[in-house]
Amino acid sequence: MKLEIEGLEFEPFIAADEIAKRVRVMGAQLNIDYAHTRPVIIGVLNGSFMFIADLIKQITIPCEVTFTKLASYYGGLSSTQKIREDIDISVNIEGRDIILVEDIVETGNTLNYLIEKLQVRKPASIAICSLLSKPAAHDERPAELKYIGFEIGNDYVVGYGLDYQELGRNLKEIYRKV
Ligand code: IMP
C-alpha cells in the first residue's frame, strides 16, 4: 500500500522478508570472512540502526560493536557535500579489522570522509557493509565497499531505518518515492 510522508508519495519496494533473507546471507558471509579475527563493527548512525541490529544477530564470531554519527542530508532529498559529525568513535582501532555498517551509499562522500578519518588511526583493514547502494549516483565508488545488500536505481527510499525529513525510519519494509 502506498503511503504519504510530508507531502511525498511512496510505494512498497523491498519487503521485510526479502530484507531479512538478504541480511542473513550477509551475516553468514561476514562470519566466514572474519572467522580469523575479532572485528570492530562500526554502525554509522542514524540510518543504519535497524540494519545493524538485525545484522549483528546473524554474527556468531566474537566481535565488538560501536557507533559513529554523521549527517549529510539535513532533511532534503539529495545528499550535500557538507558532512556533520555528531558522535566520534570511542574505541582504539589501531591494528583492528573494521566493518563499517551503512544504510545506503549514494555519492559515496560520507564514506570517503569517514574512511579518510579512520585511516589516520591505522586500522589493519576497513570494509564497508551497506544495506543499499545507488551505483549510478556514486562520484567515486569507495574501494572498501565490499558487502552490498541491494543495488538500487536513483530512487529516494525510506523505511527500515531510512528517513525522509526524519520520518519513516520505523517502517519494517523499504518504500520508494513514486
Ligand atoms: P552519500 O554521502 O551521498 O553517499 O550519502 C549517504 C547518506 O545520505 C546515507 O547515509 C543516508 O543517510 C543519506 N541517503 C542517501 N540516499 C538516501 C535515500 O534514498 N533515502 C534516505 N537517505 C538517503
From TrEMBL:
UniProt keywords, alphabetically: Cytoplasm, Glycosyltransferase, Magnesium, Metal-binding, Nucleotide-binding, Purine salvage, Transferase
Q: What class of enzyme is it?
A: transferase
Q: Which domain of life is it from?
A: Bacteria
What EC number is given for this enzyme?
2.4.2.8
The cofactors it requires, by name, are: Mg(2+)
Q: Which InterPro entries match?
A: HGPRT (IPR050408), Hxn_phspho_trans (IPR005904), PRTase-like (IPR029057), PRTase_dom (IPR000836)
One MF annotation (Gene Ontology) recorded for this entry: nucleotide binding
GO cellular component terms given for this protein: cytosol
Pfam families, per the entry: Pribosyltran (PF00156)
| Catalysed reaction equations from the record | IMP + diphosphate = hypoxanthine + 5-phospho-alpha-D-ribose 1-diphosphate; GMP + diphosphate = guanine + 5-phospho-alpha-D-ribose 1-diphosphate
Q: Which NCBIfam families match?
A: HGPRTase
Please state what the protein is called.
Answer: Hypoxanthine phosphoribosyltransferase
Q: Which organism is it from?
A: Mucilaginibacter hurinus
